[in-house]
Amino acid sequence: MASFLLRRLLTLAASLGVTSVAVFFLLAVLPGSPAAVILGTQATPGAVQAEKVKLGLTAPLWDRYGHWIAGLLSGNPGVSYISQRPIGPQIGQALSVTGPLVGLGLTLGLLGGGVLGVLAALRNRRVSGALLSSLGQIGLAVPNFVAGILLVIVVGVKLHWLPTGGFNGWSQGVGPALRQLALPALALGIAEAAIISRFVRSSVVEVLQSDFLRTARAKGLRLGQALVRHGLRNAALPVVTVLGLELAGLLVGAIVVEQVFNLPGLGLLLIDAIDNRDIILVQDVVMLLAGTVLVVNTLVDVSYRLLDPRIGLDA
Amino acid sequence: MTLPLGLRERARTGVEVAPELGASALGDMGLARRFLSCPAALIGGAITGLLVLVALVSLVWTPFDPNAIPQNVHLLAGPSGSHLLGTDALGRDVLSRLMAGSRVSLYAGVVAVVVASVVGVPAGLAAASLGGSASEAIMRLGDILFAFPALLGATTLTAALGASTTTAMLAIGIASVPYFARVARSGALAVLSSEYVLAARAYGQSRPAIVRRHVLPNIAPLLVVQTTLLFSVAILAEAALSYLGLGTPPPSASWGQMLESAQATLQTDPLLALWPALAIALAVLGFNLLGDGLSDVLDPRLRPVA
């Protein structure tokens, strides 16, 4: 077990290291410097050069990389080149939108996918089951940002049920804030439900054909009882793994969905930073997103081995 | 973006092939019959076929110039006889732009597939046939890449190199390398452990020759399925990136970018957003269905042993 954990942690550290190097050096070759953006199109080359020196952009690349990493490790992501504001609070602010959005999306996806998947499994090889499966296929084919725009058209513009964009913060109260996050979360949740339902379905179908469920039925339990008491817990294991991975997918999906609904989260922060050539902000947000994904993947991997005694820890 | 699902399911579970059965999969006379009796493959094939046809037609003919901004034209016109799907905010014909957009989507798929297979398949084959620490190194490297979200990689790369379809798809292709490597490796391992490979080895055939003559033809069906699924991933990613302004730059028509510009007039002209949305969903659905269908049709595991 210890050696497995150690190896997994080493892989995580290596992945984080490779990612940070790739992100930093890719962005270092970015055409157009933040100095030029700050000074505008009329700036002389001399002024741009002076601004570069002021921003510390003329230092050797490895020094800048070391400085950046040292800052990140000590909890200081630096100061934005463009707005001159510290990046930490900006990211914190953005997380207060993206975090709940992803959480809501995952919850909706889990609920919808769970129900759809179990139903499709129970109706396996019947017309209604096939219909549920094709519903899942369609959900898979509609990317979350397209779903978002369709939701805006139907629920927002035609029916006027929910707000279709913008976010005024949590200080307006939880109710209004949740209303503003409802459509974006639904947009994220629909595709998620489709994905989760496929895993739930195949997992439940397998459990339905298992010997222990037949035994439970033979003892006199009805199908529903047997499924709840013995089946679903066993079926949940593969779904748990997927959940961790989907959390990562949702985080990236949120970037696009935030754009649809004009939500001031990590996605909007990232896209604005790219537009402004605010390299250090881009680095920080990409590293935060990628780092979260890598850490979640590692946790999933470890917890999977802890949960399932059949998987050896030495493998 | 969470969609490389089929791709991911298969890559994660690792594909086990029965090589003796797989050997005949491509040259089998029953292949066409199996394809025709599989609804998913049939519907998916029809949709993707239509997509390819539209893209080919758009090369030589579209009702109007998809990119030029016309003079004296009704802006945001509804569907009519001359403009079947109406015009956009700049007066350009929506149908023409939709047709031209199919070309961008297919191009995105081709770039991603070429990158992923040119790097991934040799890497997987090398890992399988070399074994030992070389295999370990290749697959660990793949693991690192595997964990990195593709869309985030594409965002970073286009942020660095500027928005372009090719750059964006280069990133999607690179991110898909581990999928191809894993499938190629697990398929190749199964083939390499077969008796006819043992025979070929005893006969004195060199390792590269065995890979070329026996392994590649046998894992081809698996790679075809991966390729089809990667097309749907690439189309989706291209649409998302173009929507964000990081993919195909204007004025070239791309579905994601059409969606983005339609959003400004969503309140008054929702139809303008509906067409590219439908096109994206249909294309992704088509390639997903075709991939699922092909994996049923080509996958020797699911075939009854006669």
Task: Provide a compact summary of the structure.
The complex is a heterodimer of chains A (315) and B (306). With 315 residues, chain A is mainly α.
Keyphrases for this structure?
heterodimer, A: 315 residues, mainly alpha, MetI-like fold, 12 helices, 77% helix, globular, B: 306 residues, disordered N terminus, disordered C terminus
Describe, in plain words, how this protein is organized in 3D.
The complex is a heterodimer of chains A (about 325) and B (about 300). In chain A, helix 8 crosses helix 10 (about 225-260). Chain A is about 75% helix and about 0% strand. Chain A is globular and about 85 Å long. The longest helix of chain A is centred in the last third of the chain and has 39 residues, at about 225-260. With about 325 residues, chain A is an all-alpha fold. Chain A has 2 domains: about 1-80 and about 275-315, no CATH class; about 90-275, Orthogonal Bundle (MetI-like fold). Chain B is mainly alpha-helical and about 300 residues long. Chain B has one domain (about 85-300): MetI-like fold. Chain B is built from 12 helices and no strands. Chain B has helices at about 5-15, 20, 30-35, 40-60, 95-130, 130-145, 150-160, 165-190, 195-200, 205-245, 255-260, 270-300. Chains A and B meet through helix 1, helix 6, helix 7, helix 8 and helix 10 of A and helix 1, helix 6, helix 7, helix 10 and helix 12 of B.
